[in-house]
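User: Hello! I'm new to structural biology and keep hearing that structure can be predicted from sequence alone. Could you demonstrate with Histone-fold containing protein? Please show me the input and the output so I can see what each looks like.

Assistant: Of course. The first part below is the input, the amino acid sequence of Histone-fold containing protein. The second part is the output, the predicted structure written as tokens.
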Amino acid sequence: MNELLGMRVNGQEALPGRLGADDFGRAVSKVAVAQMCESVGFQKSKESALDALADITIRYLCDLGKMANFYAYLTGRTECNVFDMIRALEVLEASQGFPKAANVSCCLARSGMVKEIADYVDSTEEIPFAQPVAQFPVIKNQILIPSFVQMGENPPGQHIPTWLPAFLDPHTYNSLPIVE
């Protein structure tokens, strides 16, 4: 798996706890794509190929979400439900000829898409995710700026409450150039 998945993002070590929002999703997508490739028999892959497949996966999922959101709004709802997702799946896969795709007279619970997903789930063995995935957003230990009370200082003016964070030392901002 390590050969298949180069754990580097943009040339830097990919540590899930240290990635931004876009990098976090991209890294998770890349791991999932690498696992799919491995499950169908690939033993090695170029990083550029995994990046391309991860991009395609991300774009597909974004389009799926947008389409489901569209169907929710069409019916006057602000949140999607399972029927919006089924309709979005059918519309996005309609070009591949799924049975009863986007057929308005068909009950969505009996749609061809739902049947194909159920058949796939029944016929394949579940593959657990290769690496533990941190919850997003990753909450780091925050370094809080101590208040005036904690620093044992008085605020520079009476209008400033003592519970507010203390000001930075003047040397941190006095030497900075002023931009006009």
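User: So the tokens describe the shape?

Assistant: Right, they're a compact way of writing down the 3D structure. Reading them back into a model, for example: The radius of gyration is 25 Å.
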